[in-house]
Amino acid sequence: MTYDQERARQLPPPVPLPGRHDPRGGPGPRPLPPERPSEARTEIPAYVSLLAQSDRDRLTLRLQHALGTFVRSPREAVDEADTAFADATTRVTAALVERRRAIDSAHRNLGSGAETEDLRLALRQYREITLRLLRM
Fold first, then answer.
1. What range does the domain containing 96 cover?
2. pLDDT tops 80 at residue 10
3. Of 16, 39, 40, 119, which one is least surrounded by beta carbons within 10 A?
4. Sequence-ordered alpha helix ranges (H) in 11-115
5. Angle at 55 (CA atoms; ends 135, 83), nearest 5 degrees
């Protein structure tokens, strides 16, 4: 069994999407209003990575190096993999904190004059990033 097959078996059940029926009983959350074409300019698409490609490449190389040195030096390989994982989690955490700060400041800067549409966009961005995090 490959790593991906094993990991897929360990994943929790999927979170029901807004507006869809929850098969475990009861309706799913109320759907958000449909998107408007103008929203594309104000949001970061869900497929954009939290880390720059160069950072992902560097972390991947470090992990591959650790895997490649296991036979020669198992303890060193595990230590190197642990360090790469710690660096990756630190960078992803920082990126998530920055994303949260950006969403929060965008709607808070509007103060009490925030339009319902602005608040809807903020809610949608929070939903997207939270669901993305939960899919990890």
1. 55-136
2. no
3. 40
4. 53-68, 74-108
5. 80
Within a domain: residue 11?
Answer: no
pTM of the predicted structure, to 2 decimals: 0.58
Please tell me the total count of domains within the chain: 1
Q: What is the mean pLDDT of the chain?
A: 76
Q: Is residue 29 part of a domain?
A: no
- Using one digit for the tens of pLDDT, what is the confidence trace for 100-136? 998 888 877 776 667 888 888 889 999 999 998 898 8
Q: How many CB atoms lie within 10 A of CB 39?
A: 13
Residue 54, CA distances (Å) to 58, 71, 91, 92 in order: 6, 28, 12, 14
Residue 49 one-letter amino acid: S
- 21 forms beta bridges with 27
State how far the Cα of 81 lies from the Cα of 64, in Å rounded to an integer: 9
Tokens 């998530």 sit at which residue? 96
